[in-house]
Design goal:
The chain is mainly α. It has two domains: 194 residues, Fumarase C, Chain B, domain 1 (Orthogonal Bundle); 289 residues, Fumarase/aspartase (Central domain) (Fumarase C, Chain A, domain 2, Up-down Bundle), CATH 1.20.200.10. The chain contains 18 helices and nine strands. The strands form four sheets. It has a three-stranded antiparallel β-sheet with strand order 4-6-7. Helix 3 packs across helix 6. The relative contact order is 0.12. The C terminus is likely disordered. Pathway: Amino-acid degradation; L-histidine degradation into L-glutamate; N-formimidoyl-L-glutamate from L-histidine: step 1/3. Belongs to the PAL/histidase family. It catalyses: L-histidine = trans-urocanate + NH4(+). GO terms for molecular function: histidine ammonia-lyase activity.
Length: 501
């Protein structure tokens, strides 16, 4: 059971709740502050004090005062008017993550919502009632307005949800489960949609997948080194300590461990003095991506526990301040960085694939084919990898360098952080397919070299891989093999077994 305090949610907690469906409860201590700030909002409404988003319009309409008897209508109107996302729905895991993250930020006690609103978020989360949230429509400031509005629709009994594997009207699901829709009070609509929970949810899930790929790409590259009789000296610890990047040192150490005892790798000068960069520079490239992930994880960990609402309430309501914590720039930059870093894993993997299939670059049968000429073997596997890598280059263009004014130029700089997060997630998906292709090719090369000569660790990976994708003994529909290998890489953590590298 994960307890939400507003301050202590970790990436591991996030994973357990979102992916493993671990139940969540609320901290009683933290709830005291939630109640205190709600009392402050109630006092503002009673006294008629003008506060943005409580009894004013929104954005450029913030100068319009709202009568006390219309503040509830104001909040409902806000959700309806802002729920204008388009495109395919975000994955259910993203909707779960958004429910979790929004509940956590409200538990910080700066937003002025009633406890029942946070409880409704957790009810949907724990009952696995996932709002249908269109993927497109957020500028990333004033937060993820459109996606979070679609999430809020579910809480008030509107829109659609995915429940029990089916897309259904929310009202029907609530009736079936004998649950009541939420009736929004002053400020609560704004408190639900002003924030970065869509980009952070997509980003955190993307990070978890990228972290997995960083482990897997070392395993796969090690097998490729055997298939190409790579020079092991390039991974000597002295080389990498001389430069000093810890992640580079770690990757080189991983490769040495994975290839320990291999009779397929070569020594400097045996077959060649040194390898091409895609083999020789594995620690430098993979290590740099790991460095990026450390930065991204730090920013996500902060944002998962951040107050991103506006305005925020301090000192029991004595101080109510309008600011810009909803602006997604920290996550936008981190997501662009993540996408670029993971794209590089695909770039170098595709170059290794080329070296495995190109007869001018190795001493293996052309395109790893059993009958070169009559059969094309792995030729078009490299084409697919090249296409994915090229697509990644387009997706890796930074979204955060763009901005466009909105709300009659009141909101004149935005982050595009949700676009950056979505692009990073797409790059990760493409990269997994590229690595799946490299693994298929590396296994084929290992078959030709002789699996009995492989290192213990890479042979274990080869054996597992061969239980998923059989050898290419004649031309067949390889799309099915890529899909199977991709699915396995997505479902497993470390490839061959539980050794963490």
């Amino acid at each position: 059971m994960i307890v939400l305090t507003g301050d202590s949610l970790t990436m591991e907690d996030f994973r357990r709740v979102v992916l493993e469906k671990e139940p969540v409860t609320l901290s009683e201590q933290a709830m005291k502050k939630v109640k205190e700030t709600r009392a402050a909002i109630d006092g503002i409404v009673e006294n008629g004090k003008i506060v943005y988003g409580v009894n004013t319009g929104f954005g450029k309409l913030s100068d319009v005062k709202i009568a006390g008897n219309e503040v509830k209508t104001l909040q409902r109107n806000l959700i309806f008017s802002h729920a204008c996302g388009v495109g395919e729905p975000l994955a259910e895991e993203v909707a779960r993550a958004m429910l979790l993250l929004r509940a956590n930020t409200l538990m910080k006690g700066y937003s002025g919502v009633r406890p029942v609103l946070v409880e409704q978020l957790l009810l949907f989360l724990n009952e696995q009632i996932h709002p249908v949230i269109p993927a497109q429509g957020s500028l990333g400031a004033s937060g993820d307005l459109a996606p979070l509005s679609h999430l809020a629709l579910g809480l008030i009994g509107e829109g659609e949800v995915i429940y029990d594997g089916k897309r259904q009207p929310t009202a029907e699901v609530l009736r079936e489960k004998q649950l009541q829709p939420l009736s929004l009070q002053a400020k609560e609509g704004l408190a639900l949609i002003n924030g970065t929970q869509a980009m952070t949810a997509i980003g955190a899930l993307a990070f978890l997948e990228a972290e997995k790929l960083c482990r897997q790409c070392d395993w796969i590259a090690a097998m490729t080194l055997e298939g190409l009789r790579g020079v092991i000296d390039a991974f000597d610890e002295n080389i990498h300590r001389a430069r000093g990047h810890q992640e580079q040192i770690e990757v080189a150490g991983n490769i040495r461990r994975l290839l320990s005892g291999s009779r397929l790798v070569s020594k400097q000068g045996e077959l060649r003095v040194q390898d091409a960069y895609s083999l020789r520079c594995i620690p430098q490239v993979h290590g740099a991506t790991r460095q990026t992930l450390a930065y991204v994880k730090e920013k996500l960990a902060i944002e998962m526990n951040a107050a991103t609402d506006n305005p925020l309430i301090f000192d029991g309501g004595e101080k109510i301040l309008s600011g810009g914590n909803f602006h997604g720039q920290p996550i936008a930059l981190a997501m662009d960085y993540l996408g670029i870093a993971v794209a590089e894993l695909a770039n170098i993997s595709e170059r290794r694939i080329e070296r495995l299939v190109n007869p001018q670059l190795n001493d293996l049968p052309a395109f790893l084919s059993a009958k070169p000429g009559l059969e094309s073997g792995a030729m078009i596997l490299q084409y697919t990898a090249a296409a994915l890598v090229s697509e990644n280059k387009t997706l890796a263009h930074p979204a955060s360098v763009d901005s466009i004014p909105s709300s009659a130029n009141q909101e004149d700089h935005v982050s595009m952080g949700t676009i950056a997060a979505r692009h990073a997630a797409e790059i990760i998906s493409n990269t997994r397919n590229v690595l799946a292709i490299e693994l298929i090719c590396a296994m084929q090369a290992a078959d030709i070299r002789g699996p009995e000569q492989m290192a213990r660790e890479t042979k274990a990976l080869w054996e597992k891989g061969r239980s998923i994708v059989p050898p290419i003994t004649s031309d067949r529909i390889l799309a099915k093999d890529i899909a199977k290998m991709n699915s396995w890489l997505k479902s497993t953590a470390d490839c061959a077994h539980d050794l963490v590298v």
